[in-house]
Amino acid sequence: MPIYAYGCSSCGLQKDVLQKMSDAPLTTCPECGKETFVKQLTAAGFQLKGSGYYATDFKNPPKPEPASSGCCGGGSCSTAS
Ligand SMILES: [Zn+2]
Q1: Span 62-73, mean pLDDT?
Q2: How would you class 8 by CB atoms within 10 Å of its CB: exposed for 0-12, middle for 13-18, buried for 19 or more?
Q3: What is the distance in A from the centroid of ligand 1 to the CA of 8?
Q4: pTM
Q5: Ligand 1 centroid to 5 CA: how many Å?
Q6: Higher model confidence: residue 50 or residue 36?
Q7: Taking the domains of the chain in order of start, what are their residue ranges?
């Protein structure tokens, strides 16, 4: 479960909140009660994308297929030298 850093722009409270991915982001500051409690961007190993709270999208470039060497790449080549 990721920890999200939240900050309040009204009173300046900063707080880390443990949330499930599926939990809605908090908006109400527990300190001053105003709706100025917003999720901060952190470098905690996950990326926030867009304005949502779905942050499990790691950048995973697809691995290229290993180049087959010569004619024996498939393992079905019977050519012997
Ligand atoms: Zn506040």
Answers
A1: 68
A2: buried
A3: 5
A4: 0.49
A5: 14
A6: 36
A7: 3-39
